[in-house]
Write a structure and sequence with these properties.
Elements: E1 5-9, E2 15-20, E3 26-30, E4 36-39, E5 43-47, E6 55-59, E7 71-75, E8 81-87, E9 93-100, E10 106-113, E11 116-124, E12 128-132, E13 136-144, E14 147-155, E15 159-164
Antiparallel strand pairs: 1-2, 2-3, 3-4, 4-5, 5-6, 7-8, 8-9, 9-10, 10-11, 11-12, 12-13, 13-14, 14-15
Length: about 170
């Protein structure tokens, strides 16, 4: 399936609008310091007055695209997430646990729903990942000098799908 993305940028080359295959446009506005003011998929952002670029709140548009569930995050001594917990709409607990190597690179994650493991993912060098969930899946990210070029996905280790990647801008 082919998809086309149309992106618009302001005079500072900040992404202001993106439309994928004719779906509703995503839009964003920015403050003069580069902070995101508003995003159609996120709402209106507010920032801490004493910490540079530190978001301290988001006012969601209706209907709310951001879940209003509490999320608890535990960090490692080297400031990467070790456990993320959140309740879903049925108040069943999601929990993701991350393991890191000596180089502080992520090597494994385990995701549980209500105490039952739903996915275990292994992270290897050079952009290779392997999932051991209900469907075994391998992913290999292919890089180029300008960034991510393709994603190869192998489902059940029998068929493969190569997906070309266009430049995608993600706003945080």
């Amino acid at each position: 399936m082919s998809q086309k993305q149309k992106s618009l940028y302001d005079n500072l080359n900040w992404l202001t609008s993106a439309t994928v295959s004719g779906n509703a446009a995503f839009t964003a506005t920015y403050a003069s310091n580069g902070n995101v003011n508003t995003k159609t998929d996120g709402g209106t952002y507010s920032y801490d007055a004493t910490k540079f670029n530190a978001v301290n709140g988001v006012t969601n548009p209706a209907p709310s695209p951001i879940a209003l569930k509490q999320q608890d995050i535990t960090y490692t001594a080297f400031m990467l997430p070790s456990v993320i917990k959140e309740n879903n709409t049925s108040d069943v607990q999601y929990e993701s646990t991350y393991t890191y190597g000596a180089d502080y690179e992520r090597i494994k994650s385990i995701t549980k729903l209500g105490g039952t493991t739903t996915n275990t993912r292994y992270y290897f060098a050079n952009g290779y990942e392997k999932d051991n969930s209900g469907t075994a899946r391998e992913m290999h990210y292919i890089s180029s000098p300008s960034g991510l070029a393709a994603l190869i996905i192998k489902q059940n280790l029998t068929s493969s799908l190569t997906t070309p990647i266009q430049t995608i801008w993600v706003l945080f």
